[in-house]
Design goal:
Elements (H helix, E strand, L loop, with lengths): L1 H20 L5 H24 L4 H13 L3 H10 L9 H14 L13 H13 L8 E7 H14 L4 E6 L6 H15 L3 E7 L8 H10 L2 E5 L19 E4 L3 E5 L17 E2 L1 E7 L1 H17 L7 H4 L9 E7 L7 H12 L3 E5 L7 H12 L3 E7 L5 H8 L2 H6 L3 E5 L3 E2 L3 E4 L3 E5 L5 H6 L2 E7 L2 H15 L1 E3 L2 H5 L3 H11 L6
Parallel strand pairs: 2-3, 3-4, 7-13, 10-11, 11-12
Antiparallel strand pairs: 1-8, 2-5, 5-6, 6-8, 9-16, 10-14, 12-17, 14-15, 15-16
């Protein structure tokens, strides 16, 4: 009913504006339509104020509603009105929590006493907040860029014996996408169970003919929140940004790379694509797998948790601890933001961040400032050229306050930097799908792996240092000398930081 009410208000708003600006009506009628338009906007602003958002966020949406007639109202309904209390995915969140309680049977309290202080600080928080648990019998391997990820992925897919479960935000029907689809169909014809989940908006370029061909070959294919179900129930703006591949329950992949030739660095309009993915073996694979299974159940209603071959963990000799964490509308609100904040706050020596979109909330900015004041070495790496005007200039709008407190900022110049990596004190790291922006914190379904004492952390450090050689350090003096035009772009883009 609420959706119908909002749809009718939208029609009234559009009709009122048209009557005032374009219709050949008498003055008194135009005045009435103008009053109707004003009443609808004031009613929306009053409803917005009652949501008790931050003052900054509330003022942003008031500006949008007032200064962008009709467009601002529609943008608010289907982008700004996020239902932060979680009504939209209440059933999924409840079901997921029940499943996690059932599958994570913890027999004993974890012992973090052997960890150094900064790791123990974060591990206790993660244990108490996340529904998932830390895994020790796990091995991780870093895959740098598409040149390492896709050959390894194809090889492992071809080795599958029992099942393949694959999930992507973007999956294209280009040359790379078709190569992987051919492997999936080949394995399905061999009797391997193949389930394929893609985001309904991110994978719009995935052709229906390819989907039909996969289904004909025996691949079970579903879209997560497809467009035809999204607009009027307000789920259009909530996207599944996760990238997960599970093979026979013993191999898992996650990270920043989607499926498309641009992720191999072969799109001439984008150029070189710098990204980081990860292969997981052992116990943590089933934690990652459970996240896929919950998304799969939500989309098509098939509950696979009763089958032991989908849930039984495989333990191997590990080289550290791994904690896989899901975030999004199906979990505690803003949980990934809280994880990033805690990770930063627990640091004793250094914090290295690499992210394509740096639009931090106030808590994370405060944590970075305090870390600098404690003497922690803070480095942030972002791409020189971003793939969007608003994200690029909104990111730069945060540089002044960061530079003032001593943060080192590096601008990656070789191509587009898309990896999402945080390294703390040289022995703890986060790698996954979540950017450091409001969309990843509040709108997108994400998944990250937090690593403790793994050899992969050293590999991430080595790669970060290599990336610094392809970057230029942003000098405080030079940056402050930028022109009025650049500052104006930054200030304008920052107005939209609450929805980026």
């Amino acid at each position: 009913m609420k959706r119908v009410y909002e749809f009718l208000l939208s029609l009234l708003l559009i009709g009122s504006l048209y009557a005032v600006l374009f219709a050949q009506y008498p003055f008194y009628l135009k005045l009435l339509f103008g009053l109707l338009y004003t009443v609808i906007i004031l009613h929306t602003i009053f409803s917005l104020i009652l949501e008790n958002r931050t003052a900054q966020n509330t003022l942003l949406w008031i500006y949008v509603l007032v200064f962008l007639p009709v467009i601002g109202y529609i943008f608010y309904l289907y982008s700004g009105q996020l239902y932060l209390k979680g009504h939209l995915f209440k059933s999924k969140r409840k079901n997921d929590r029940e499943e996690w309680v059932r599958v994570t049977k913890e027999n004993e309290k974890p012992d973090f006493t052997g960890m150094p202080d900064h790791q123990r600080c974060f591990a206790y928080y993660a244990h108490n907040v996340a529904l998932t648990k830390m895994n020790s019998s796990t091995k991780t391997t870093i895959l740098k860029n598409g040149s390492e990820k896709f050959p390894e992925l194809k090889k492992r897919l071809l080795e599958a014996q029992k099942y393949i479960h694959i999930q992507y935000y973007i999956f294209r029907s280009d040359r790379l996408g078709k190569e992987i689809m051919e492997i999936l169909m080949k394995k399905a014809r061999e009797g391997v169970e193949v389930r394929f989940l893609f985001d309904g908006i991110g994978s719009l370029s995935l052709q229906q003919s390819d989907i039909d061909e996969m289904k004909k070959a025996g691949v079970k294919v579903h879209a997560f929140l497809p467009v035809r179900y999204g607009f009027f129930n307000q789920k259009l703006n909530f996207r599944n940004h996760r990238k997960i591949v599970i093979i026979d329950g013993v191999i898992g992949f996650t990270g920043g790379l989607n499926v498309g030739v641009e992720y191999e660095g072969l799109d001439p309009t984008i150029g070189f694509w710098r990204d980081t993915h990860m292969l997981i073996e052992g116990e943590a694979v089933q934690t990652l797998h459970a996240i896929f299974l919950l998304d799969w159940e939500y989309v098509c209603g098939e509950d696979l948790f009763e089958h032991e071959n989908y849930t039984k963990p495989t333990r191997i000799k590990g080289d550290g601890e791994v904690h896989v964490v899901a975030s999004g509308p199906d979990t505690q609100q803003g949980i990934m933001s809280d994880f990033y904040y805690t990770m930063i706050s627990c640091a004793k020596k250094s914090i290295w961040i690499a992210t394509p979109y740096f639009v931090p909330n106030e808590a994370i900015r405060a944590a970075l400032k305090i870390a600098n004041q404690k003497g922690v070495k803070v480095r942030i790496m972002v791409p020189e050229i971003n793939d969007g005007f608003l994200t690029q200039y909104a990111t730069r709008s945060y540089f002044p306050e960061l530079l003032r407190c001593g943060t080192e900022i590096y601008s990656y110049k070789k191509g587009f930097l898309h990896q999402k990596v945080i390294i703390v004190d040289g022995d703890m790291a986060s790698i996954g799908t979540a950017n450091m922006d409001m969309r990843s914190f509040h709108l997108n379904f994400e998944v990250n792996a937090f690593l403790f004492n793994c050899s992969s952390v050293k590999e991430l450090i080595s790669q970060y240092e290599e990336d610094m050689e392809e970057s230029s350090k942003v000098g405080a003096v030079e940056f402050y000398k930028r022109g009025l035009a650049e500052r104006s772009k930054e200030s304008f883009a920052r107005l939209f930081s609450g929805v980026l």
